[in-house]
């Protein structure tokens, strides 16, 4: 972890190699009132139709999903060789408590909403060719705008096959734009630097303990987060935690850089921190410092240290491939299938919290 002043990193346009990807992931819960249908409406342009087939109105937590207006990974895109093209957006940790109505998108019973997603603005599709596109995961929701407890609904779309014109896709403006270099040169955490150093040290401690617990925790406890308890899953989880512990444990060198300046414009309402995986950059938002302390002993609560841990798992430079945001909060994590849980950032943050808090 490089704590510069606070960073002048690589350009966003840096080439990121495609990495092998497993088969499309399945959410654990097949029963859901949410139906997601994808259809192609242009070159690399996809329309998602989301339908609430149930009898109750839903208020969907939009951030980090296909409903999010910010440049998050809204759909899973695979090349013809089943690798992921470079993703050029952000992944983030969002607040899951004390939410107001602006955090939600309302979807009344027996109704639908549409959103359009330009994949070329979020992924490097300039090579062109055939790509498959789908989405699956868990979305948080409430049944009323005044409700405080989040529920979770699994969803899974159909799979599209797109023939993409690479030249046209390469000409599309990127959704994520880095701000002026002179702003970055002034980037400085100032009075918040001690809080970051404390969070990094605690992140290293939490990740070290979680790595040990990944190998030794009772099957029932481990399975409540990662589903599978086989030796391979435990080894993968332990290895990722060990890599995070090493990264959080250094403030000189390392694979990532950290800033307190919103260099890419991702610090919207409700966002604690975000990562730009293409350049292994982590940004702590103002809410990171005002909402929580360093670490919490409350089961499945959020804090600065587990937020840093969450973001570190996103960075492929720490452990490749980096995690995604398949679901936020414990209720959502409980709905994920084994592969999705293994690749989900909040699963790691929540398990580390559980080890520390004795959940």
UniProtKB/TrEMBL annotation:
InterPro entries in the cross-refs: Fungal_M35_metalloproteases, MetalloPept_cat_dom_sf, Peptidase_M35
GO cellular-component term (any): extracellular region
Catalytic center residues: 311
UniProt keyword Aminoacyl-tRNA synthetase, yes or no: no
Co-factor binding comment: Binds 1 zinc ion per subunit.
Keyword Disulfide bond: no
Record keywords: Cleavage on pair of basic residues, Hydrolase, Metal-binding, Metalloprotease, Protease, Secreted, Signal, Zinc, Zymogen
Family the entry assigns: Belongs to the peptidase M35 family.
Free-text function comment from the UniProt entry: Secreted metalloproteinase that allows assimilation of proteinaceous substrates. Shows high activities on basic nuclear substrates such as histone and protamine.
Stated name of the protein: Neutral protease 2
One GO-annotated biological process of the protein: proteolysis
Required co-factors: Zn(2+)
Location in or out of the cell: Secreted
Molecular function in Gene Ontology: metal ion binding; metalloendopeptidase activity
Pfam families tied to this protein: Peptidase_M35
Primary localization: secreted
E.C. code: 3.4.24.39
Residues reported to bind Zn(2+): 310, 314, 325
Catalytic reactions on record: Preferential cleavage of bonds with hydrophobic residues in P1'. Also 3-Asn-|-Gln-4 and 8-Gly-|-Ser-9 bonds in insulin B chain
Organism, scientific name: Trichodelitschia bisporula
Segment forming the signal sequence: 1-18
